[in-house]
């Protein structure tokens, strides 16, 4: 497109520059890296790549990726391959272009039903030609002369059908937007919203144009928005956050780069732009950044070019809190390279970044041309490894490891979109040449959920490629075969936007709300961001994808069993297909219950002694945990680094709960107090208890909760372990993940450890601050007759004085009598502290317990609920005496199965017993024991764990291992040794119940019988 002098003066792009003289403030960037060729032709490197073995169909690329060895830890960035797409005529293909947009539009209707339209990629606009340098001479312009200008701006629309691997040019009804490039586009349901950009006449208007793809014949609409808005701009970003808020950020208004943030609530009419002032440290004024929204509502903005034409490497997250505030936070990890004019898109919790420019005619090169920010692990990865320092090397075959595929992604001003686990890239600019290739890669982080599924998928891959069938989620087939194998999207994924009402008065009004967006599987109505908040958890999504179903029989020695997760799937022929499940090390005893599935890998943080990463996040097979516990070495805690610091929100301490949260919720920076005097007085604790008690008293005895949710086991006053778990796996704060996932604690908050007051007051404060998201149930130590003997009463007196300490101890124990007694998650999982014992056969028995209730006034149901344990292993059935004391029992796997069948449940999660790996399966996986305190009482040397339950009901264990005592710390000082003598003597005189699987000592004074 022709740019006038005013437009060109503000665009410091090496690929876009005015032929006229630039004002004094403009730099002289231009592309001079490679010989110029006519637009649409390919340079030598491109031709070599597309003509080599790297050029594959998407099934072959997926098959090659699935044959790679499984990796431990975050998956590296994927490798892209060229897709040989079909088209009826040349005009159906988009052709060479840059500065366009590529948007994924979900399927319309039910698959197999009349009128069904599969998922599509919509390409709009862009520049289709270049002007400026002499194509005939083939020599780049010298510095200071005219650079390359974009020309041939279009407003055409091309559609790529993912299922049929076919491009089509479409001509919608209605008045189209003006031709433009450097604009933004995002999907709202089955509509594509276009805004901004720059065209032949300069900046495009700020109007919102909507391409409605709900019907067979698409239609353009123009959205009426009241009041002021972002105004004309280009090089900005736009994304739909939480399936509700249309966000426009940054760019250039023709005068300068911007950093403003605008939001349009698609659920509120009349539509109106609102300028936001987010809290926290946000990005500087910049243009040509990228932004993508995670499914749980987090928007991530990365890269860009600042006002001094310097490429940026930082990434920032923007989230909306429940109280309506918006907040920026610096994303963790070390980006491999600064970049701008790149592309980025989320797949689950992984942001896939590709290409980009560095300025001065240089591109992002070597293995950093493709990068992934794993928001669950908090690290960046390139195609080779986890990134610990920025990459600075130039491109070379050696740097790329001899992989010619790296050259494919060496481009800028391209566009990317994701369909399921597949990432697509189209077009762009490389060395002054416009590109017209379609690339695809698959995010294999989900594909490695089980080695059995990986082997089966790889085996199926070979046969499918030979038969011309599709691998992965969607089909890519040659037009001659016409064979596709579409697979339904997983439950809970958004696949259908709301139908748009007929236009009123032409194209002047349209409805872009997502209020009626439908979900596949159980067809549910989306009620805006509230449902999305429930629907996903960032931490779980990175590693908790559904087990890949291998539609074959007895491959590589795997055992064929009915798919207990979903039941048999119906094939087009009506036959049933079984799923291959890898035999567990314990045989068939560990088959996951139907619906609820225990992920076969756990997330482990192992403390390392050196390096910038400190504690390394790894994924480990659950079946290897007996050995893993011996392999993990001790080390020092990870030091705080600038790359992983989240924003510390300035909190106004105007209430006790806020004061407690501000003082104690420091996952990275909390240290045991040098002075043991507790920071709250008895009046403040009374206020806190009063506020929490009002909430507990309004809750039922059995909480009804929804996934996603994190579940914590016994803490026992080990506040440092609670902070470590928050630090590694997310904390319940506005700067953490409380907006996206709930927290459930299973009791035993006090006793044994040295910081029961910190543990209890923080959990109560979090309950008051987030009453609908933080949930506490009662353990057996939340009783005065128990915690008077095992440390809590002594701690209150020792840290608050005898009079105030005894008063506080009494007040908190009165509060304990109000705690709920169990929790039911999605009506499929019941969580309790102890077990079902001999007396509990139905959930209603727990629901009928009236609170407040003391231990001595409780029935046998309460005793069983808080004190009973499973038997030693699955071979011991029935009821047996419990070594904890007379009248208590252990219950066998037959009781677990009976209880689950009686109540239509699939899993019991309980705490109460120390287990070496932090969690332990029982009753063929229908019961999990969970323990979150590490090195219990300083002797057990056990790991601590939490369970993360995703929206898909996949349970992911996440572990921390015990740390050695610091060599020099307040804990090791002589003064502290004297002050802590009371706790050491108490644990020596009343040793804890042995770790599960170890024998009970004779005459154990820690048992209930001795008490």
Written account of the structure:
The chain has 1011 residues and is of the alpha+beta class. A hairpin with a 2-residue loop joins strand 31 and strand 32. The longest helix is centred in the middle third of the chain and has 17 residues, at 451-467. The relative contact order is 0.08. The chain contains 20 helices and 56 strands. Strands 40, 41, 42, 44, 45, 46, 55 and 56 form an eight-stranded mixed β-sheet that branches. Helix 9 packs across helix 12, helix 10 (682-698) packs across helix 12 and helix 14 packs across helix 15 (802-816). The chain starts with a helix and ends in a 22-residue tail after the last helix.
Compact overview of the structure:
The protein has 20 helices and 56 strands. Strands 40, 41, 42, 44, 45, 46, 55 and 56 form an eight-stranded mixed beta sheet that branches. A six-stranded mixed beta sheet has the order 43-47-48-52-54-53. The protein has a five-stranded mixed beta sheet with strand order 2-8-7-4-3, with no helix packed on it. The longest helix is centred in the middle third of the chain and has 17 residues, at 451-467.
